[in-house]
Design brief:
alpha+beta, six-stranded antiparallel sheet, 6 helices, elongated, binds (2R)-2-methyl-4-(7H-purin-6-ylamino)butan-1-ol, histidine kinase
Length: 268
């Protein structure tokens, strides 16, 4: 009887964990797809129309009205690529100077990625050089070299919540799928991205599910298997003996690996 009771509990753990992993992965995927569409919107209306048929007011309104399509993102923005030789004319044209993510005037760099369009929920990144943050910078470089959506490792976002940043490159010319890295870099116009506020938005998602009270859920970035990085939940003390179940997660960036670990709060 004891054995049967344990396996019944473990069965419940497996199915509840799989349900949560599937939901999280699906909501992640729809959010990424919609950011992809926003990158195409910027290419179409900012770069393929002369003069551009997009401005901050239009971008803010469109992204606010479509935010339901991106349930796990706290906000999206577009950062334009500015090489140093064009910095002065860019700043004169915009009427403001490029600042770092620490809100200081940007020192001289080879190039910058100042935010020119933002959803109102992340308006605090307007005018900031996203290459001035280590995680954001790595994402920008990796996305434009590959032409694909990329994710940062989990880190404290400017909102002070734990999360990850998603970045899509925007190119000036149409590139073929097999375009070389140097051609991609040369054709880069900017970066469309957003912040997955994992800490608060995944909490909301899980709260709605039956069994939430009895389950402890953690998500880790396990890209480096010997150094798992906490992405959601609180760190479980080492040597916790209660049974756990692990579900693999696919967030669409083949460079990163993630998984979900579920446990019962009180041993069954
Ligand atoms: N967006 C919102 N909060 C953040 C953040 C970010 N990056 N980085 C740290 N906190 C415009 O990749 C381009 C958004 C970066 C995109």
């Amino acid at each position: 009887f004891r054995r049967a009771a344990i396996s019944k509990a473990e069965e419940g753990l497996v199915s509840m964990c799989e349900e949560r992993a599937r939901m999280l992965q699906d909501q992640f995927a729809v959010s990424v797809n919609h950011v992809h569409a926003l990158a195409i919107l910027v290419a179409t209306f900012h770069y393929e129309k002369h003069p551009p048929a997009l401005d901050q007011v239009t971008f803010a309104e469109y992204t606010a009205r479509t935010s339901f399509e991106r349930p796990l993102l706290s906000g999206v923005a577009y950062a334009q690529r500015v090489v140093h030789a064009y910095r002065e004319s860019f700043e004169r044209q915009q009427g403001w100077i490029i600042k770092t993510m620490r809100h200081e005037p940007s020192p001289v760099q080879d190039e910058y990625a100042p935010v020119i369009y933002s959803q109102e929920t992340v308006s605090y990144i307007e005018g900031l050089d996203m290459m001035s943050g280590e995680e954001d910078r790595e994402n920008i470089l990796r996305s434009r070299a590959s032409g694909k959506a990329v994710l940062t490792r989990p880190f404290r976002l400017m909102s002070d919540h734990l999360g990850v940043v998603l970045t899509f490159p925007v190119y000036l010319d149409d590139l073929t799928a097999d375009a070389k890295e140097e051609d991609r870099v040369a054709a880069t116009a900017g970066y469309l991205g957003g912040a997955f506020d994992v800490e608060s938005l995944v909490e909301n998602l899980l709260r709605q599910l039956a069994g939430n009270q009895e389950l402890v859920v953690n998500v880790y970035d396990v890209t480096n298997n010997s150094n798992p990085l906490l992405m959601y939940g609180s760190e479980v003390p080492l040597g916790n003996p209660s049974p756990s179940h692990i579900c693999m997660l696919d967030f669409g960036d083949p460079f990163r690996k993630h998984h979900m670990i579920c446990r019962y709060r009180n041993k069954p």
